[in-house]
Amino acid sequence: MPNDDSSKNLHYKRVILKLSGESLADSGGRGISGEESGQIAQQIKSAHQSGCQIAIVIGGGNILRGGQFSGANALVQEATAHYMGMLATVINSLAMQDTLESIGLKTRVMSAVPMDKMCETFIRRRAIEHLEKGRVVILAAGIGNPFVTTDTAAAQRALELDADVVLKATRVDGVYNDDPEKNPHAVLYESLTYDEVIQKNLRVMDATAIALCNEHAKPILVFNFKKDGNIVKAINGDTVGTWIGSSKPA
């Protein structure tokens, strides 16, 4: 359990960290890279040592994308492809579990789809208990239903677990008015309201995730996880990334 004194001055005491599957991959965006996973794990360890309770939601796009099965000649039904994507998130979650535990963190993988040979089934009260005992909880298989993204799963779990914020980790510095990887003149937003995200059609998280956070005033912080130390900065409330909420951060 993290030292109680270390958590007294935390800006956020419990967070959902949303990682894409590609964040674990090599430069080609496929598979699982030990180097990339290890770098993220070290940042998570530093954040956890500050006393913050951390739950992680990881996507599965580095292993399987639902779009692979779209089109007139697709042999796999769309719902089936979504289930396959859920399994990809379990693979990533198990990889992250072992990576975190190899550097001394205690973890639990909890799946929305029961698979008790590999991980626990998600139960809200048990997940909270794990967090309060100082374990990093890795939330796999979305919410267990097809046609629901891992962005929406992150928002849903943030509400269920009473997280202070959803930390959306990306490979750019936050939310821009255009794709900064294609447009060098794209402008970074410091803060946005949920309505602005929707009205400007900004591709931050899917519309359902934004609507959930909006309805329950759950803030989102979009930041660049590739910059070492940014996860700790985000948890400490330092100026980093783009804040999305009903009002500007205090």
Automatic annotation (TrEMBL):
Record GO terms (molecular function): ATP binding; UMP kinase activity
Domain of life, per lineage: Bacteria
InterPro entries in UniProt: AceGlu_kinase-like_sf, Asp/Glu/Uridylate_kinase, Uridylate_kinase, Uridylate_kinase_bac
Keyword Kinase: yes
Positions that bind UMP: 60, 143-150
Transmembrane segments: none
Pfam family, one: AA_kinase
UniProt keyword annotation of Protein transport present: no
Root EC class: transferase
One biological process term in Gene Ontology: 'de novo' CTP biosynthetic process
Assigned keywords, A-Z: ATP-binding, Cytoplasm, Kinase, Nucleotide-binding, Pyrimidine biosynthesis, Transferase
Residue span, Aspartate/glutamate/uridylate kinase domain: 13-224
EC code(s) of this entry: 2.7.4.22
Activity control note: Inhibited by UTP.
Pathway: Pyrimidine metabolism; CTP biosynthesis via de novo pathway; UDP from UMP (UMPK route): step 1/1
Subcellular location per the Swiss-Prot or TrEMBL entry: Cytoplasm
Catalyzed reaction equations: UMP + ATP = UDP + ADP
Binding site for ATP: 18-21, 61, 65, 170, 176, 179
Assigned GO CC terms: cytoplasm
Job description of the protein: Catalyzes the reversible phosphorylation of UMP to UDP.
Similarity field: Belongs to the UMP kinase family.
Subunit structure: Homohexamer.
Identification of the protein by name: Uridylate kinase
Organism (species): Rubripirellula tenax
Gene: pyrH
